[in-house]
Design a protein that fits this description.
The chain has 94 residues and is an alpha/beta fold. It has three helices and four strands. The chain has a single domain, classed as Oxidized Rhodanese, domain 1.
């Protein structure tokens, strides 16, 4: 899912309280319930990976973004929890 060699934009749709527990480097944080009002903040020039705690909310947001003209969107299945378990154990689990 890489277009033109650019790194994908990471969109973190978790709540502020969750972000305080574990963060994802260089992610843009827009809580799920704010996505419709802040759609103009979602990058249009590169692929987007959406994440939440376990992948449920991010799947909903990824589908919403695709339905609103963002074709290059993927959900991080398993969310930041799976990332912590499988990729980077330094990311705290909660």
């Amino acid at each position: 899912m890489r277009a033109g060699g650019a790194a994908p934009a990471v969109l973190d749709v978790r709540e502020d309280e969750e972000l305080a527990l574990a963060s994802f480097p260089d992610a843009r944080h827009i809580p799920m319930d704010q996505i419709p009002a802040r759609l103009n903040e979602v990058p249009t020039d590169r692929d987007i990976v959406v994440l939440c705690h376990s992948g449920g909310r991010s799947a909903v947001v990824a589908a919403y973004l695709r339905a609103h003209g963002f074709p290059r969107v993927a959900n991080l299945r398993g969310g930041i929890d799976a990332w912590s378990q499988q990729i980077d154990p330094t990311v705290p689990r909660y």
